[in-house]
Amino acid sequence: MVTLRTFTSRTSTQRDAAIERLRQELRRDFLATFTAINATASELEQVSGGPGPPGADGTNGTNGTNGTNGTNGTNGTNGTNGTNGTNGTNGADGAPIDVQSQLTSGAGTWTKPAWATATTPVQVILRGGGGGGGGGGTAQAAAWGGAAGGGGACVIAELLAGDLPGSVSWAVAAGGAGGVGADGSNGAVGNDGAQGSNGGNTRFGTLGYLVTAFGGGGGGWGNNAAVNQRGGGGGGSGGAGEQGSTAADIGGAGGAPNSASPLVSVGGGCGGQSGRSAASSGISAEFGGGGGAGRASTGVVAGLGGGSLRGGGGGGQGGCNSTTNILTTTNTKKTTNKITPGTGAAAGAAGANGTNGVSSSSGSMLRGGGGGGGGGGSNQIGGSGLFGFGGQGGDGGAGGGAGGGGGNGRSGLGSGASDSDGGNGGAGGVGSIYVITG
Q1: Residue 54: how many CB atoms within 10 A of its CB?
Q2: Is 310 inside any structural domain?
Q3: How far apart are CA 268 and CA 234, in angstroms?
Q4: How far apart are CA 130 and CA 216, in angstroms?
Q5: Which residues is 246 bridged to in the sheet?
Q6: For the residues 389-418, what does the mean pLDDT come to?
Q7: Is the dihedral of CA 377, 378, 382, 385 positive or negative?
Q8: Total domains, the chain
Q9: Mean of the pLDDT values across residues 94-99?
Q10: What is the DSSP-derived secondary structure letter of residue 362?
Q11: Residue 404 belongs to what domain range?
């Protein structure tokens, strides 16, 4: 046991020596105490019989820092397409329409469509036949060509299916035949050509619902003398065109209703008048047929064939020689309106045939046929073995076009004189019918 002492009144040497002695005493006491503790621990270990149970787990260490991100993986394959959606419902059907037609002459029948109701509209479009052109005359000194036929009328009727039976008969008109040109067998005296025939009427149904489109008149014949000849009048909504013939007035009347004066333009359903020598162009109609070109006694061109907006066009006059053996200009074509019913035909040169009028295009319900051009006349001076043929008038186009007049022939004397015939008039174009339901 170390006893603390108090150092007073000593020298430093004495003090240091005392401290050293104290330190050694403390070390000796510590060693003795440590030895005793070891001995006691050894005795206790022998008494307990071995080590005790494990101690409790230590606490977890702190988390380490996050590692760096890895690289992105490759893209996966595309998935399969989804199934198609269901189809939408069909739209409503459009309103039906039925078209029945005939563009050749003869009988036919319209049959009411099964789906038509009492109020379903039925539109009927008809055209009458065109008149034929007159045949050209022949003579040794001078002769005249034939006048032209008139065009067929166009008529449009609006009906209801409930007003009509299950079927309705119709008849499409033929065009008028052209007049035959005069033969030259009578030598110096000559012969007249034949008058052109009238075009027929096109009809739909019978009384009660009869609809009719009237034909054009045939053209007057070519003479072997200085006489006026009328062209055929155009067909009208109420009557056929007048057939051309000799008259003081060369204006053939159009079909009823018509104008009192051939110089007055005729509209609506009126038939066109035939041309006059004073007319610089043919007189036109709207639904009526165009008038054919007439011919003056002087042999000069009386006028152009009349045009029509929807009916057939009038034909052109046949060529005529004058008393001085100079061929006059023949009609070149019918007049043209803003809506032309077909192309007018060019006239023939001396002794040549006029070209045919152009038909209304297949399936065209708006336009009638064009008129045929007049045949060219002969200006051959008649003499021994000398003669000339008249050209044939052009046919009218299908859809009511009128035939052109035949050109004049010139008779000779002696051998071959009988061959100097006048030209035949052109045939009128057939009519047409369209019935549109819906």
Answers
A1: 6
A2: yes
A3: 13
A4: 5
A5: 229
A6: 75
A7: negative
A8: 1
A9: 87
A10: T
A11: 108-438
Count of CA atoms in the C-beta half-sphere (13 A) of 197: 16
Q: Is 124 exposed, middle or buried (0-12, 13-18, 19+ CB in 10 A)?
A: buried
In a domain, 60, yes or no: no
Task: Give the mean pLDDT of 369-395.
Answer: 72
Region at 200 (left for phi over 0; alpha for psi -120 to 50; beta for the rest): beta
Distance from C-alpha of 404 to C-alpha of 147, rounded to nearest angstrom: 7
157 vs 310, higher pLDDT: 157
Pick the more confident residue, 274 or 299.
Answer: 299
DSSP three-state, residue 182: coil
CA angle 314, 335, 144 (to 5 degrees): 55
Cα torsion 267, 176, 316, 311: sign:
positive
313 or 414, which is more confident:
313
401: pLDDT strictly greater than 50? yes
Whole-model pTM over 0.85:
no
Site of tokens 């054919």: 292
Widest Cα–Cα separation across the chain: 203
Q: Determine, yes or no, domain membership for 175.
A: yes
pLDDT digits (tens, 9 = 90+) for 231-281: 888 888 788 888 888 765 555 566 655 544 443 333 334 555 554 433 334
Q: Quick check: helix, strand or coil at residue 44?
A: helix
Contact criterion met (CB below 8 Å) for 314 and 322: no
Residue 288's nearest CA partner among 369, 223, 234 is 234
**Look-up of token digits 């003499």:** 383
Averaged pLDDT, 317-339:
44
C-alpha to C-alpha distance for 435 and 438, rounded to whole angstroms: 10
Q: How far apart are the first and last CA of the chain?
A: 141
Q: Residue 100: what pLDDT?
A: 96
Question: Is the pLDDT assigned to residue 67 strictly greater than 80?
Answer: no
Report the run of H or E that residue 16 belongs to, with start and end.
helix 12-48
At residue 253, the pLDDT reads 64
Per the model's pLDDT, the better-predicted residue between 194 and 321 turns out to be: 194
Query: Do the beta carbons of residue 308 and residue 367 sit within 8 Å?
Result: no
HEC readout, 93-105: CCCCCEEEEECCC
d(CA 404, CA 416): 27
Indicate whether 53 belongs to any domain. no
pLDDT of residue 232: 85
As given in the structure block, the two tokens for residue 250 are 């060369």
Residue with tokens 């009458």: 128
pLDDT number for residue 119: 96
